[in-house]
Design goal:
Elements (H helix, E strand, L loop, with lengths): L1 H41 L4 H8 L6 H8 L8 H8 L2 H13 L1 H11 L3 H12 L8 E2 H11 L3 H18 L7 E2 L12 H7 L15 H14 L9 E5 L10 E7 H6 L3 E2 L11 E5 L8 E4 L1 H9 L3 H14 L3
Antiparallel strand pairs: 1-2, 3-5, 3-7, 4-6, 6-7
Helix pairs in contact: 3-8, 5-7, 5-14, 6-11, 7-11, 7-14, 8-9, 9-10, 10-11, 13-14
Length: about 325
C-alpha cells in the first residue's frame, strides 16, 4: 500500500515537473506577445484588429522544425531546372495563358508586362495557384519572430501582416501561405504585399489568395515598379566559342549584342544573336562547365523578386515555352 502511494506521488511530481517548463514557455510567449501588441498599437494598428488576429495565438512547432532543419545540400542547376521547368509545367503554362488571355492582355496594357512572364512567375511560385501553402501566416510569422534565426526580420513582417489585416480587412483565417510567411498565389511576403499588391477592380481590397485578377495585376505591378521593360525579354540561352575569356563572364560585365556576336556567341540552337540595341551580361548559373545564358535588364528585375540565378532563369525559360520569339 505504501509502495503504491509512493509510486503515485512520484508520478504526480514527475508530471508537475514536466508541466512546469511548458507553463514557463507559455508565459514567456504571452509576455512577448503583449510586447508585440504594444508595438503594433504604437504603429497605428487598431485594437480590434489585434484582438481578431492575435486571439489564441501559439507558436507552431512545425514551423520551428522547418526553420531549424533547412537542407544543407545544394541542388545543381540542371536538377533545379529539371524540377522547375518540366514538360508538364510548360504545357500547363500554355493552357493557363490561353484560358486567361483576355485578362492577361488587359493587365499587360495597364502595367507594361508581357503576359507570359506573369504566368511564368505564377507557375514557378505556386504551380498556378495550386500550391500556395496551408500555414496560417500570423502564427507562422509570430513563431519565427519569437523563436527564429532572424527574429528582427520576421517581427517586421508580422507587423506588416497585421497592417494588411487592418487595411484590407483580410480574415486572419484566410491569410494562408508558406511556413516562412510568403502569402497567396504570388507568394508575397507582407512587406512586398504592402508595396506592390493591387486591387485590379479598384475596390480597395487586395486579394492575392482568391482573385486571379489581383494575383496577375500584383505580379505585374511588382515587376513594373522595379523597372521592367515590356519591349525586351529576359535574355536567352547561348553557346560559347572555345577559348572565351572567363573574365567576360559575370553580371558586372555588359556588352552589346553586336559585341557578343563578334566574340563568337550564338544562340543555343546555333543561330546568330539578334542585332538589337540591348546590352547583356553573360552568366553560367551552373558553374564554368554548365550551360550559358545572356541576361538583359529584365533578368535583373527577376533577381529582385528572388535573388537566385536558378529562379530567374527558370522563370525566363518557362516564359519562353509559351511564346517563342
Amino acid at each position: 500500500m505504501h509502495a503504491r502511494r509512493f509510486a503515485f506521488a512520484f508520478l504526480l511530481l514527475a508530471g508537475l515537473g514536466a508541466a512546469a517548463p511548458a507553463r514557463a514557455a507559455e508565459e514567456e510567449f504571452d509576455h512577448w506577445l503583449a510586447g508585440l501588441r504594444q508595438d503594433a498599437l504604437a504603429q497605428g494598428i487598431r485594437p480590434a484588429t489585434l484582438d481578431r488576429a492575435l486571439a489564441g495565438l501559439e507558436p507552431l512547432q512545425r514551423v520551428i522544425e522547418l526553420d531549424r532543419q533547412q537542407p544543407e545540400t545544394v541542388i545543381s542547376y540542371a536538377d533545379y531546372l529539371r524540377h522547375a521547368v518540366t514538360p508538364e509545367r510548360c504545357a500547363a503554362a500554355r493552357e493557363r495563358l490561353a484560358q486567361n488571355r483576355a485578362l492577361l492582355d488587359a493587365v499587360a496594357r495597364r502595367y507594361g508586362v508581357q503576359p507570359r512572364f506573369i504566368v511564368a512567375l505564377w507557375g514557378i511560385e505556386t504551380s498556378f495557384g495550386q500550391a500556395t501553402g496551408k500555414f496560417p501566416v500570423i502564427a507562422s510569422l509570430a513563431t519565427l519572430a519569437y523563436d527564429g534565426r532572424r527574429s528582427a526580420f520576421f517581427r517586421k513582417e508580422l507587423i506588416n501582416a497585421l497592417r494588411i489585416i487592418d487595411e484590407d480587412d483580410v480574415d486572419p483565417k484566410e491569410m494562408l501561405g508558406s511556413w516562412a510567411g510568403a502569402m497567396g498565389q504570388s507568394q508575397f511576403m507582407p512587406s512586398s504585399f504592402l508595396l506592390y499588391a493591387v486591387s485590379y477592380s479598384g475596390d480597395g481590397r487586395r486579394d492575392i489568395w482568391h482573385r486571379r485578377e489581383d494575383v496577375f495585376a500584383s505580379i505585374a505591378n511588382y515587376l513594373a515598379q522595379l523597372g521592367w521593360r515590356q519591349d525586351e525579354t529576359w535574355g536567352r540561352p547561348v553557346s560559347l566559342p572555345k577559348g572565351l575569356d572567363s573574365a567576360l563572364i559575370g553580371p558586372g560585365v555588359k556588352r552589346s549584342l553586336a559585341q557578343w556576336r563578334k566574340l563568337g556567341l550564338r544562340r543555343a540552337d546555333g543561330g546568330p544573336l539578334p542585332l538589337r540595341p540591348i546590352e547583356a551580361s553573360l552568366l553560367q548559373p551552373g558553374g564554368p562547365d554548365g550551360p550559358a545564358v545572356l541576361i538583359y535588364d529584365n533578368y535583373r528585375v527577376l533577381m529582385k523578386w528572388n535573388s537566385s540565378n536558378y529562379f530567374a532563369t527558370a522563370v525566363g525559360l518557362l516564359a519562353d515555352s509559351m511564346e517563342r520569339r
